[in-house]
Design brief:
Blueprint lengths: L8 E2 L3 H23 L4 H24 L6 H4 L3 H8 L11 H22 L17 H34 L6 H6 L1 E2 L15 H31 L1
Antiparallel strand pairs: 1-2
Helix pairs in contact: 1-2, 2-5, 2-8, 5-6
Length: 231
Amino acid sequence: MPASFNPPVRVWDLPTRLFHWALVACVTGALVTIKLGGTYMDWHVRFGLATVGLVAFRLAWGLIGPRYARFATFLRGPVGVWRYLSGKAPAPAGHNPLGAWSVIAMLLVIGFQSVSGLFANDDILTQGPLAHTIDGSLSGTLTWLHSQNEWIIYGLIALHLLAILWYTLVRHKRLVTPMVTGNARASDLPERAPAAEDGPSVWLRAIVLAAAATALVLWINAQQAAMSLSF
């Protein structure tokens, strides 16, 4: 092995990667089915429910997940973001200071979209599983906000894709490949960056969280079924 060879470093654990691509699939599915309308709205609700579970999982994983998945590891204040942007601080492994806040923005916006959808009602064919639990005027307000927030999601997705292109073409740093394989090139990381923990103990922790998130989604879905049976 050449002396200059530096092996790749595990940055993204398997649960974080699975969450990322599952969220991509669910958000894409929700956006497509809302445009198709009609009977596809049933799938729109399903994608929304799955998104609720995914966001709940990620919020908890940000507290107890491995090193680079934790909010405490990658979130920085204004000074930290400015030092990174001005070149006074190197890009850390995992999310950089600016990208970290874009992750938070995405979780908040998508989280609001999925939760507000639970209470939305189009007064025609489709209503969220919990729409019957609140006043009609409040449901109408949340429905309007749900519709308007869609444009913010489009904007965040566009910024996310542009950032990936910029890092790939200008900074020559891979962002997509590590989110697929879990490993980043040593040249893309600070010297001696520690690897993220990833293995059976991490996966077991994630399975317990995923089971709790699934139970939450099933409980929410059951509320609509219970309402249907009461009529």
